[in-house]
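Step 1: inspect the first sequence and its tokens.
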Amino acid sequence: MNMMILALCVGAVIIAGLAFYAGQLLYKLSAQKKLIAKEQVKQQAKLAKLAKSRLERNAKLADSIHLIARAMHQEQCEFSEGSLRIWVLMSQYSFEDDEDLPGRYPGIFAMYEVVKEMPTHDARKKYSKKEIFKQDSARWRAEETHAEQIKADCEKIIEEFKAAPGSENVVFN
């Protein structure tokens, strides 16, 4: 009989120890779940902030792209300069899906390809007048060659990239 009581006591101690250990594991699991939930909330907030900043950045880029395209369409900005500026801005724009920009805006892309390696500002001063005239002539020919396609591209851009409120009333003189 003493053996039986001893076995029951040992069994009860073992069961109590296992129950205590199971309780600790459940507590740790609960704490881990709370930590994971907290981290997910932080991650979602971070993603929301990134999405918001991306939208704000895209809005500023779209406004600039729109204004340059309008100036080009109204012939207030040379096609070569506008194409260079628009292409650089579009490369910074975050599109929803992968855009085939050269296929979508072939005139602007063709003009960009012509002028992207040409020196500007102080870099032009390093060249002779003859070399600068040669580059300018190539640029003028390309502007003439691609003029109709660039204007069509500008019309598409004006429709697709919306101006920021207030800037749609900017007048080019």
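Step 2: inspect the second sequence and its tokens, then contrast the two.
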Amino acid sequence: MELSPQSKQQIDTILRFEKWTSWGFGILVVSAVVGMLVYASYWDMPDSFILVLLMSVFTLMIGIETSRFRMWLRFVKNGQARKLLTLRYTVYLIGVSAIGYYGIVVFYETPQPQSFQAFLLSQAFFWGAAFFGKWLDRIIQKHDDHYLTGADLKLIREARDIEKEQRHG
């Protein structure tokens, strides 16, 4: 099946966005953690450094998800699919916020030992939101063919890798 130039451009944009955000986020977080460890090994590190790290990682995650949502809104044209897409990302951001709440408020701000139940509750919110998002992905795709699920993107990446290998030998 031959794709239209618009579909090819959409797929290229999505794959490029996924690649840059995953690599960029990973590099920034690892650099921040290594920098904190190096700093802490030579000087006394104030507690506010950990709060700044948690806030910056949380802000970066929210920013990436918001950018991803706005990117998909450009491609999805069906009204019902757009509403479901908004619901999907709203629920996912609530799940990410639960992780951020645990990391910032419960883990950092609470002087007494953290409860395992609070940790499990934040994880349940996050993974519940992720599961709900994957379920909504299939429904959104039924309403609008321009929406690609994570499995679709994985298959496209694998097909492009196979094409590259065949071209280069």
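Step 3: confirm your contrast with the notes below.
The two ends are 24 Å apart (CA to CA). Residues 67 and 144 are 20 Å apart (CA to CA).
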